[in-house]
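Sample pair:
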Amino acid sequence: MSALGQAALPQSHALIRSALRRRHGLSVVRLVTHLATTSLVFLALITLVWIVSWTFHFMHSVYPFPDEAFRLLDRLEMLLIYADVVMSGIVLLDGVWNYVVEVIRGDS
């Protein structure tokens, strides 16, 4: 990269930041906040599922469950994981959709 290119790079970043602040600042803040909140909810739910799974497997190691009960609880564990992923994905896509709509309409 030449010296001219390096000097122009900080100016272009400042120009982009200025345009974002004027046009999409509030929308960007809303999107980032939404993504952070979605991530925290996903982590909380997956942690809860992990604790339930760990407890289930610990109990099974101490006192083995019948095969049918073990399969049922194992399926329930997988359903909880899938439900967490689906719910978080829907919430994430909703936030992105709202961001795109705000940017297109210019509601920021």
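The chain has one domain: 25-105.
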